[in-house]
Structures are given as C-alpha cells and as structure tokens.
Automatic annotation (TrEMBL):
Region annotation Disordered: where it falls in the sequence: 1-53
Positions with biased composition (Low complexity): 18-49
Compartmental location: Cell membrane
Family: Belongs to the MIP/aquaporin (TC 1.A.8) family.
CDD domains tied to this protein: MIP
SUPFAM superfamilies according to UniProt: Aquaporin-like (SSF81338)
Protein name: Aquaporin Z
Matching PROSITE patterns: MIP
InterPro entries: Aquaporin-like, Aquaporin_transptr, MIP, MIP_CS
Keyword line: Cell membrane, Membrane, Transmembrane, Transmembrane helix, Transport
C-alpha cells in the first residue's frame, strides 16, 4: 500500500508543518487579537487647581448699563464746577460794584445812598443776565437757603454755593482794600488819625453805635439790636420772596432779573439807615474781614437775620406753590437729540 499512494504519502503535510504554515500559533493569535481590539480610552487626569486666596483689598464694582436709543432727547445741566464758578463771579461783581461805590461815594459825587442802592441793584441785574442761566443767579447765601427750603434748589448744593459766594465776595473786598491810597483816610478825616481799616469800616454793616444813623448823629440816635434784627429779617424775606416768585415757572422769567435788581435797590434804601443794608451774609462777611474789630463782633447778626428771613420766605413760598420744580431758579439745561444708540454705564 505504500507503493500504491506514493504521492499522497509524500504530499500530505505533517501536522506540525500545517500548523506552522496555515494556522497562527496560539501566542500569535492572542497578540493579533489584542492588536485588533481598540485600546480603552485613557481617562483624563484632572489636577486640582488651587483656589486663589481672597484678597480683602479687592473691591468689586457693580455697574448698571443701558442703551439710549437714537433720536432720544437728552437733557443735561451745567456741572457743579461751572455753577460754583458762576456763583463766585456773580458775588464778586456784586461786592466789587456795591462796596466800591459806597467806599468812594463822598468823593465820586454819585449821590450817596441812592448811588449805592442802584449800584447793588444794577450789579445783581447784570450778574443774573450774564451767568444766571448757569448757576441760577443766587450770589447770596440767604437766597440759596430760601431756594432750598422752597424746593427750588438741591440741598446738596447749599454748602458749595455758600463757599463759592464767600470766596467771590472776599476776593472783591480784598481788591478794594489793597487799592485804598495810604493818605486818603487821613485826608478825609481832616488830618485826624485814620487807617485803611477804619476807612473800610464805613461800608461794613453794624447796629447800635455803629449804625449809620448813630454815626450821622454823632451817637445821639441809634437803632438797637432788636430793631436791626427785625429790619434785616423783613427786608431779606421780601427780597427772597420776590426772587422765588419772579423765577417761578408760571412767571415770565425774562423779566426776573429786572424785578430782582430793582427789588434789591429799593430794599437797600430801606435798610441803609438802620444797618447799612446787608441782606447778604457774603457781602457782610467780605466787608467785616477788612474793617475794625467791631465789624466782626457784630457779624453774627448779619448771618442770622438774613438766613431767618430767607427761611420764612421759602416756607411761605412752599405753602402756596404746588409741587415746586427743582429748577435752581434761573438755571437752564442743555437739550440735544442723540443720532446713534448710546451705551450708558453707571456705577450701582
């Protein structure tokens, strides 16, 4: 039989050869299967991130933002700096003109009392026309207080306005004081001992022995403290009441500067014989600083009386004026129309 199938015997592969040639070995099959099987995705390694330490000094600001559409009418008023500058300028003009005329009325021939009254009135009229649209044209701490009580001026503006008015008034008085010729006081007193301070004292406000009536009568007649207090309260209340009424939105504001200027002039004529007519604490302070010591000792009355009078005027105006607008008297706002959308960001 071995001779009948020699080829078969010769062509039949050995079992070990067939496994080696046609079928992979178990180790190779395992390696191939491992190669064909996709490797599992590696899990991401998350490293802990240290939280930043809280800084106590860091302040986080919260802001509000909104968009103003194009075509919106935007109304803006003058800045506080502009308004304070206008108040200082107006008070400077008022004190410079009024005290300047009063100081040299004996040598200028302007008619004495009438010239002084018209000087103060015209000065406030010009100042209101010039810068009243910027600051409201107060030029007087009493007017500012009356306007605030009457609901016409913001309370936050009262102290800044007072400071600006004092600065303007004192600066004007200082210029007048330093320009007094050294020989003039003695010349006007016919050789008697006199100084620039005593000469400047003639324009300061006073009562009792320092009232103009007492000086004119050489001490024979004088106005007492009570009378001086009463007169200053009344004339200031009338003055502030006229201002609040003339600048009311229901009134013709174009005529307001003339009403205010004329009112100041005639009220000064009333009060000059009694106290030399204050109606304005800034004016009284400016003249007292450069006068003899008695002017400073009596200055308190010319703060108290005008402020009380202004408060009365503000309360009466508030009682009869329904919902007064906080328009700051004659101050005017600027209005414009936006042409593009505007993003407005404000601090919360």
């Amino acid at each position: 039989m071995s001779q009948d199938n020699p080829d078969k015997a010769a062509g039949s592969p050995e079992p070990d050869d067939t496994t080696a040639a046609g079928t992979p070995a178990p180790e190779e099959a395992t390696a191939a299967a491992a190669a064909d099987t996709p490797a599992p995705a590696a899990e991401p390694v998350v490293e802990p991130v240290a939280e930043p330490e809280a800084d106590e000094d860091v302040v986080v600001e919260e802001l509000d933002a909104y968009v103003v559409p194009a075509g919106t009418v935007v109304v803006t008023g003058p800045s506080l700096v502009a308004r304070l500058g206008a108040e200082a300028f107006g008070t400077f003009t008022l004190v410079l003109v009024g005290l300047g005329i009063a100081l040299y009325s004996t040598v200028s021939g302007l008619g004495g009392t009438l010239g002084v009254a018209l000087g103060f009135g015209i000065a406030v009229l010009a100042g209101i026309i010039a810068v009243g649209h910027v600051s409201g044209g107060h030029f007087n701490p009493a007017v500012t207080l009356g306007a605030a009580i009457g609901g016409r001026t913001a309370w936050k503006d009262v102290l800044p306005y007072w400071l600006a008015q004092l600065v303007g008034g004192i600066l004007a008085a200082a210029i007048l004081f330093i320009t007094i010729p050294a020989a003039l006081p003695g010349l006007l007193n016919q050789g008697a001992e006199a100084s620039s301070k005593s000469f400047f004292s003639s324009v300061s406000n006073g009562y009792a022995e320092h009232s103009p009536l007492s000086v004119a009568s050489q001490g024979q007649v004088e106005f007492s403290l009570v009378i001086a207090l009463l007169v200053e309260i009344i004339v200031t209340a009338v003055f502030v009441g006229i201002i609040l009424g003339a600048t009311d939105r229901r009134s013709a504001n174009v005529q307001a500067p003339f009403a205010i200027g004329l009112a100041l002039a005639v009220l000064i004529l009333v009060a000059i014989p009694v106290t030399n007519a204050s109606l304005n604490p800034a004016r009284s302070t400016a003249s007292a600083i450069f006068s003899d010591s008695w002017a400073l000792s009596q200055l308190w009355l010319f703060w108290v009386a005008p402020l009380v009078g202004a408060a009365l005027a503000g309360l009466i105006y508030r009682a009869f004026a329904a919902e007064p607008a906080e328009d700051n008297l004659l101050e005017e706002d600027d209005a414009y129309v936006t042409t593009d959308d505007v993003l407005v960001v404000t601090e919360r």
